[in-house]
Input
Amino acid sequence: MIKPDAVERGLIGDILKDITNAGFKIKALKLTQLSLSEAETFYAIHSKRPFFNDLTSYMSRSPIVAAVLEKDNAVSEFRNLIGDTDPSKANEGTIRAKYAISKGENSVHGSDSDENAKIEAEFHFSGREILF
Ligand code: UDP
Ligand code: MG
Output
């Protein structure tokens, strides 16, 4: 996902360019907005964490871009491209180092495993919206 802080600042094109320049193929793509309850479902794993309410209100406050991306070792390659959760710790040149505002408003989401990538793709897209 391209998160609300980045969409609000007009960064959709810049971030998609970084993603495709890094060799990812876009297999599904949409601009949409999460309801609060959808954000709570998406981030349910973090429901006991102190930042959960801030995270879900931020993620539902304005539109996001959802994408399914393809590359060899896509999960780890994408996490390398986006950098650390905290932009002050993210390597130079990573998407979060370039664009993120804070550890919370960090511009992009990446799946953390192949299993969760499939669950998250199916959260955002119906079968015929994903090309293969
Ligand atoms: N987050 C936060 N404070 C924290 C940790 C995480 O606000 O201390 C937010 C942040 O937006 C992060 C998301 O919760 O991207 C999910 O956290 P996770 O640890 O899964 O980080 P990610 O996988 O996005 O790097
Ligand atoms: Mg995560």
Notes: The domain at 4-129 is CATH 3.30.70.141 (Alpha-Beta Plaits). Helices lie at 4-8, 12-21, 36-42, 52-60, 74-82, 95-99, 114-124. The chain has seven helices and two strands.
